[in-house]
Write a structure and sequence with these properties.
175 residues, seven-stranded mixed sheet, 6 helices, 9 strands, binds adenosine monophosphate, globular
């Protein structure tokens, strides 16, 4: 299977979870073992200069855990509010459809860590900005931000780079 064939399995669902949103449904890609493996390897990258993989709830968990296992790194979940059991730090952010909060355990990453941040979709960039800020607050550095799909017209990349020009953002497909 070629990467393009794997990516073609991402399905567009109009008006989900609300009117006007074209939802990128990655479940058909995840269900195909060759496609999932190819995309995991692509997201992990060639150089893998990171010590930990941070995945953002919920689809960032699926991709991030697969990448961490593929590259023999640890996996760190950044979760929605109230889900993590230990002491947390939190950030609120605006979504393409609503407002949310993500949290990280206070000891989730160390200052010596270089982190790969993973999510399925980059839309307005609010979610990834919040994750970036949590990682910086924890004192770690960021190796790269990687997403499967970038919704270019929402300009999330520009929003992130305006605030953090040093960050590398890699998307497997932009549309
Ligand atoms: P944003 O913070 O606006 O960049 O939104 C990114 C987050 O919301 C990611 O965690 C995505 O899973 C989710 N998301 C936003 N827009 C979409 C979309 N059109 N299709 C699928 N997921 C989306």
């Amino acid at each position: 299977m070629q990467l393009q064939q794997a990516l073609a399995l991402v399905r567009d669902i109009p008006d989900f979870p609300q009117s006007g949103i074209l939802f990128k449904d990655i479940t058909p890609l995840l269900a195909n073992p060759q496609a999932f493996a190819l995309v995991t390897s692509e997201l992990a990258g060639d150089t893998q200069q990171y010590s930990q993989v941070v995945g953002i709830e919920a689809r960032g968990f699926i991709l991030g855990a697969a990448i961490a296992s593929h590259s023999s790194r640890g996996f760190v979940p950044f979760r929605k509010a109230g889900k993590l059991p230990h002491t947390t730090i939190s950030k609120s952010y605006g979504l393409e459809y609503g407002v949310d909060v993500i949290e990280a355990h206070i000891d989730a990453v160390q200052p010596s860590d270089s982190v790969l941040i993973v999510d399925d979709v980059l839309a307005t960039g609010g979610t990834l900005l919040a994750a970036i800020e949590l990682i910086y607050e924890l004192g770690a550095s960021i190796s790269e931000v990687v997403v499967l799909y970038e919704i270019s017209f929402l300009k999330g990349r520009e929003r992130i780079l305006e605030k953090y020009p040093e960050i590398t953002i890699r998307s497997i497909v932009a549309g």
